[in-house]
Amino acid sequence: MDYKRILTIQDISCVGQCSLTVALPILSACGHETAIIPSAVLSTHTMGFTDFTVRDLSEDIPKIAAHWGKEGIDFSAVYTGYLGSTEQIDYVIDIMNNLMTEDGVKIVDPAMADGGKLYPAFDMEYVEAMKRLVAMADITMPNITEAAFLTGMDYRETYDETYINELVARLHELGAKKVVLTGVSYDAETTGILCSDGTETTYYRHELLPHSCHGTGDVCASAFVGAYMAGKSLYESAKISGDYTLACIKNTMDDKDHWYGVKFEPLLGDLAQAVRA
Fold this sequence. Notes:
277 residues; alpha/beta; 9-stranded mixed beta sheet; two-stranded antiparallel sheet
């Protein structure tokens, strides 16, 4: 496995096991040098905590990128998560255009919506900006809500394979070269991850637990990126990330005091072993 330098750009919640506090240890455990740009710093994440602090770091992003450019620093992959504004999306596009190796991989998790709704900070102007970023992506990793907003299709809570295939086809039409669609459930007992490279479609189905945890989307996306950049195929990466996320939820669900995230750290060794297998 080649030693690669990956840049991940997303916010950092100092407590809460999501975004950068998940991405950095997971990518590192997968064997990659991991660089970061925090898009904002929060005392905690925003789900379940009150009176949290937030500091936007937008103005620092181009300064960091300019310094790296002068130093000749580049990246084998750029992986984006939650971005707080259209301005930050523009900065990311500039970084992807100027600070990547010739064969660098652009990976976009368009973290902006769930459950049929945009997150409170976002509007349709943000969706239009995210479309430009997804159009550049070698891999985009939306959930079904995000895919619906990106493609202009109606969001459905219940659906069939025809609906999912249309979502994926429209994401390809938008420009995404490879699509990894998460949270695809065709029945009440299972869920899964659908992967498409524009020619072949695969689907990894696994158990659906009656329990949800904050940050699992970040865990899944980061594990996928870690596995894929280690040389695994789309399907293998989906299986590794799905299995790891499921195991993290199971490792947490009996601990009522740990409501704010998943206890992913004790299982990092298992993830590293799966990536290297």
